[in-house]
Design brief:
The protein is mainly alpha-helical. It is built from nine helices and two strands. Helix 2 packs antiparallel against helix 9 and helix 4 crosses helix 5. About 4% of the residues have low confidence.
């Protein structure tokens, strides 16, 4: 994730990690499944607020720009060799990751794997098929969230709409408002 946040202001980096910590990695701290679901939904809305986005000038549709999964300058059909290894040869991938975790760089294992790829075109075919399937699912899946209507056009609009949604819902716990306040404080929008 660090490369995605590279060059972003400290406040944004802190806010992203704060969203993850406060909304997505709370399994041990939140026992109630409904509260857990609400925090996930809140985290998704907060992420949309922070995300780099573009607005279509004619339709007003908002899309979020995600970092490219291929290195700059790589061809359109680039396949990350370690991801291919992970899918096509899990045992070799396990050795590769073990070498890295023990302080190595895994390069010899990776190079040996890459040399095998031309002899196994089915690996790349299956990888491309699976990737296309995943992309289709990700691009066409909408996660229903009570916070879908949150207005992310400005800090004030986002805070007001999130507070309104919380007030109109069964989520009366102050923890949700504290969650929002923490995000705004991290971004430097409000002071303590």
């Amino acid at each position: 994730m660090a490369h995605v946040l590279e060059g972003e202001p400290t406040e944004v980096v802190d806010a992203v990690y704060g969203i993850i910590e406060s909304n997505f990695i709370v399994d041990g701290n939140v026992k109630d499944e409904e509260k857990r679901k609400a925090l996930l939904e809140m985290g998704i809305s907060q992420s949309k607020y922070i995300a780099t986005r573009s607005i279509h000038p004619e339709t007003g549709d908002i899309s979020y720009n995600l970092p490219s999964s291929r290195p700059a300058g790589a061809p359109e059909d680039y396949i990350n060799p370690s991801e291919l290894m992970k899918q096509a040869d899990p045992e070799t991938y396990s050795r590769f990751m073990s070498d890295i975790s023990l302080g190595g760089n895994g390069l010899d294992i990776l190079l040996d794997f890459v040399k095998k790829v031309p002899k196994h075109p089915e690996w790349t075919d299956q990888f491309k098929e699976q990737t296309a399937h995943n992309d289709l699912l990700l691009n066409n899946t909408h996660i229903q969230s009570r916070f879908d209507a949150a207005d992310t056009s400005s800090a004030a609009a986002f805070l007001e709409s999130m507070q309104s949604i919380l007030a109109d819902s069964s989520l009366k716990d102050d923890a949700y408002l504290q969650n929002m306040h923490k995000l705004y404080k991290t971004l430097g929008i409000v002071k303590s």
